[in-house]
Amino acid sequence: MHARTCPQVGTLTLTTLGGKKVAGLELDGVEERVYRLHFNARQNRADRFANTGGVFGAAAAAALEGASPRPVLGGFAAGTAAGVALHYFTGKRKA
């Protein structure tokens, strides 16, 4: 029986998505990692903060600069970064 392997994706995409770590894993290993991340409370909190920050950043940019795509995308990126920073500085620290 042959092991199922992760389909090949371009190197840039793998690096960009953090997939370099999972590039050598078999499909079962990738599925296990996705499952663990899905149920990780800290990761879910970081995702919520990033998504909320992105939405608020995009809305603020749209209100200040108009609905032009470039400022809205920049506002989304800045809001996402701010959301991740807020998650980091307000989260519980491991002892």
Structure description:
The protein has 95 residues and is mainly α. It has two domains: 1-39, no CATH class; 41-90. The protein has four helices and no strands. The chain has helices spanning 11-16, 27-38, 41-65, 69-90. The longest helix has 25 residues, at 41-65.
Short synopsis of the structure:
With 95 residues, the protein is mostly helical. The protein contains four helices and no strands. Helix 3 (41-65) runs antiparallel to helix 4 (69-90).
End-to-end separation in angstroms reads: 45 Å
Largest sheet: none
- Give the overall silhouette: flat
Question: What portion of the residues fall into strands of 2 or more residues?
Answer: under 5%
Count of separate DSSP helical elements? 4
Total E-strand runs: 0
Please tell me how large the radius of gyration is: 18 Å
Mean pLDDT: 82
Secondary-structure element series: HHHH
Low-confidence stretches: 8-15
The total number of structural domains is 2
Structural classification: mainly alpha
Helical amount among residues, as a percent range? 55-70%
